[in-house]
Write a structure and sequence with these properties.
Helices cover 15% and strands 33% of the residues. By secondary structure, it is α+β, with helices and mostly antiparallel strands. The protein has one domain. The longest helix is centred in the last third of the chain and has 18 residues. The N terminus and C terminus are likely disordered.
Length: 229
C-alpha cells in the first residue's frame, strides 16, 4: 500500500512485535488527545482525530491489587477479551471467569477485571498506525458506532472516522472524557482495496500480545460501578 510517497512492505514485518506510538486520553475530562510528536516529552494536543481504524479488538487485564499507576504487569491478561493467561501460565476463559462478572469489583459492584478496547488508527501521511486504548467508559459508544458501520456492509478500515472527546460524569460524580465517533468519509473502492490489504498484513503484528501495554493507557480510571449507563 502506498502511504505518502513510499511503498511500505508490511509483509516483511510478519512475526515481529513492533512498539506502536500511543495516543492518550488525559485525565479530568480534558477534551483533547495527547498525540506523540517530535518531542517525546511534549506531546501534541489535538481536539479531534481523522483516521482509518486498521485494527480493533477487546483486551482484559486483572490486577489483584488496586492499580497504582506504576508499570506493573497484570496478574492475568487477555489479548482477545475471551481467553486469558495468568501469572502461573494457567489458561482462563474470560467468558466464565468470576473476575469478569459484574459484582466482582470493589464492594461487590462492577468488575474486578479491567475491560478495554485497542484501536490501531492510521493518520494521513503515516506509515504505521498508532495505538489508542479505549477505557470502559468509551467502549459502549464505540460499539454503537461499529454496529452502524457493519450495518452498511463496511469494515472500520473502509472509512475515515472522526474521533473526538466529550466531557461526561460518572454516577459517583467523577468527570472524565468519553470518546465519540463519527463516520467522516467512505473510501473510494480502489483505495479501500489497498487499505484492506494493508490492514490484513498489519494485523499479523497488532495481534501479538504485549503485556507491557496492559497498564492503564489513560489517566482517568473510572470503575464500572461509576459508569452512567
Amino acid at each position: 500500500m502506498a502511504i505518502g510517497n513510499k511503498e511500505i512492505p508490511i509483509d516483511e514485518l510478519d512475526g515481529f512485535q513492533l512498539s506502536f506510538d500511543k495516543i492518550k486520553i488525559p485525565a479530568g475530562g480534558t477534551t483533547a488527545f495527547e498525540v506523540p510528536g517530535d518531542d517525546p516529552e511534549n506531546p501534541d494536543i489535538e481536539k479531534e482525530l481523522k483516521v482509518i481504524i486498521i485494527d480493533q479488538y477487546p483486551v482484559n487485564a486483572y490486577y489483584k491489587e488496586a492499580y497504582d499507576g506504576t508499570e506493573t504487569a497484570p496478574d492475568c491478561f487477555s489479548n482477545d477479551g475471551h481467553t486469558g493467561i495468568n501469572n502461573d501460565g494457567e489458561i482462563i476463559s474470560c467468558d466464565s471467569c468470576p473476575n469478569n462478572k459484574y459484582g466482582s469489583g470493589t464492594d461487590g459492584i462492577g468488575k474486578a477485571c479491567k475491560n478495554m478496547r485497542r484501536l490501531y488508527i492510521l493518520r494521513s501521511g503515516d506509515a504505521f498506525p498508532m495505538l489508542l486504548t479505549l477505557p470502559a467508559t468509551s467502549i459502549v459508544p464505540f460499539g454503537k458506532y461499529l454496529r452502524r458501520i457493519v450495518a452498511k456492509g463496511l469494515r472500520p478500515c473502509d472509512v475515515i472516522t472522526k474521533i473526538a472527546l466529550k466531557k461526561a460524569e460518572s454516577k459517583g460524580g467523577i468527570t472524565y472524557a468519553q470518546a465519540t465517533f463519527v463516520l467522516e468519509e467512505i473510501l473510494a473502492p480502489e483505495i479501500k482495496e489497498k487499505v484492506r490489504e494493508y490492514a490484513a498484513n498489519m494485523k499479523k503484528t497488532t495481534r501479538i500480545a504485549n503485556i507491557d501495554e496492559y497498564n492503564s493507557e489513560n489517566a482517568d480510571d473510572v470503575e464500572d460501578k461509576d459508569l452512567p449507563f
